[in-house]
Design goal:
The protein has twelve helices and no strands. By secondary structure, the chain is mainly alpha-helical. The chain is elongated, with a radius of gyration of 19 Å. The two termini are about 30 Å apart.
Length: about 260
């Protein structure tokens, strides 16, 4: 069997393993999914009228249209925390040591985690998006091409954050530390344009909110879903996604290839 065929076969096996784990132990995914759903409902039904008035909207429907794209990307960050925890558990519970002694492709373990996490992220985004539609979000002005570009952005962003989460999981001594180390993936959206425009933030804080990975990705997704312009945010979002994916990949590979102590 060629090296490529071996890698595909073993990666498929590891992917099935991770999907089975997610199906048998859904509590971690559901708990992480609950955070963006609760924030979505909180900001719509508790703060929606006030936030909409502050942004010049006539009612909360304008704020729903603004809010949902940011919450969708926040959902990806929340879901990938589970990836960091799963990777750390694999490293500390001995299964990776067992895999190292077997005739399997070395990178298949990480590839299985990454593909499984991306699939879970997409499924989580669909569920949160369904909640958004149920409470009034509409994307009537977006074309089919913009919908396709929005889906591609979500997948690429999920891939980038997943590789970062895998690196965090490999660098953590236990699952609790992995969960804590990955918290920036859910905190950064709170410091972005997900809930309020950057222009409405204090002047000293605006550069922090603007020059971070989530803000250009949120603005790009918002423009695509609402059929408005995205300006330079599209290129910034693409650059962030590719940069984080490459950084996470090499970080994860170096950590995984390091001989255990």
């Amino acid at each position: 069997m060629s090296t490529l065929a071996l890698a595909v076969r073993d990666s498929s096996t590891m992917l099935r393993r991770n999907l089975l784990h997610a199906r048998r132990y859904p509590s971690l995914t559901l708990n992480l999914l609950l955070t963006p759903v609760m924030l979505l409902l909180l900001f719509v039904y508790i703060f929606g009228d006030v936030m909409s008035a502050g942004m010049g909207g006539a009612d909360r429907s304008a704020y729903i249209a603004y809010l949902v794209p940011g919450v969708l990307l926040m959902t990806i960050g929340s879901t990938t925390i589970g990836t960091a925890v799963s990777v750390s558990m694999d490293m500390t519970e001995g299964i990776i040591a067992r895999f190292r002694t077997m005739a399997i492709h070395r990178g298949s373990v990480l590839i299985g985690h990454v593909i499984g996490s991306v699939l879970q992220s997409v499924a989580s985004v669909v569920l949160v998006g369904a909640v958004g539609v149920a409470i009034g979000f509409r994307s009537t002005d977006a074309t089919a091409l913009e919908w396709l570009a929005a889906f591609g952005l979500l997948v690429l962003f999920a891939l980038a954050l997943t590789w970062i989460a895998v690196g965090m999981g490999l660098a953590s001594p236990n699952a609790e530390a992995a969960s804590n180390n990955a918290m920036p993936l859910i905190l950064l959206p709170l410091l972005s344009s997900a809930f309020v425009p950057v222009d409405g933030m204090p002047g000293w804080f605006q550069p922090i909110a603007e020059y971070q990975p989530f803000t250009p990705a949120i603005e790009t997704l918002r423009g695509l879903l609402l059929g408005t312009g995205i300006g330079h945010n599209g290129w910034l979002a693409l650059a962030w996604c590719l940069g984080l994916a490459v950084l996470g990949y090499f970080w994860s590979k170096a950590s995984f290839d390091r001989d255990p102590k």
